[in-house]
Amino acid sequence: MILDYKGISVFYSDEGNGIPVVLLHGFLENTVMWKNIIPHLSKNNRVVAIDLLGHGQTGCLGYIHTMEDMAEVVNTVLDNLKIEKAILIGHSMGGYVALAMAEKFPEKFLGLCLANSTSQSDSNERKINRDRAIKAVKQNYKAFVSMAVTNLFAENNREKLKSDIEIVKQEALKTPLQGIIAALEGMKIRKNREHVLKNAQFKKLFIIGLKDTVIQPDIIRKEAETTDSQYIEFDGGHMSYIENEKLFLQNIVHFIELI
Length: 259
Hints:
The chain is of the alpha/beta class. It contains eleven helices and eight strands.
């Protein structure tokens, strides 16, 4: 489905009935990442998946897409669908967006799952790496996407998941240059939102990849404990929904059932 938002098209899907579950993809991803998960969740829930700004079939709004900008898009889609409360599940950047939304609209949350994500802001080193990534993608778009996607997977999974990684790369290559740069700029300047989790009245779950090189597992574990959030650890990298597909789905379903 397509929603007109400030002159651009925002794509989303809406399937099933029951308590709403909103799925937010990560950087270089789109709603396709949820293709194996939506059929299971939509058996008992209303499942909405949204292409965030500059990703998938959703257009770009400018040269910086802040997490707040993306959260406003998500909120507009939910308002359009007359969804007042929902469980949000965000993978990586999708988690940053969900947290930005939770800061502004906490009353809309029944629960929040941060999959391979964090409420922390970028470290100085991470900000430098974002700037390097922007230069790299401008110089060689395809090489950047290929390397960026490969590095999301644990090294020991790269050969056995070769075909899955190729599919992720093909979807990532659909992300326009402007969308990539705008997201990198937006993630670079995002705020620390640990206070949002500490003050939350809803259930919270972290999914951690023990071999995640993007977000250090020790940092997320400490964050979960500090914010009184549940957490589950998988023996994989940043792409838990592929590297630990069955366990990922089982734990998501269990989290939804608890709510």
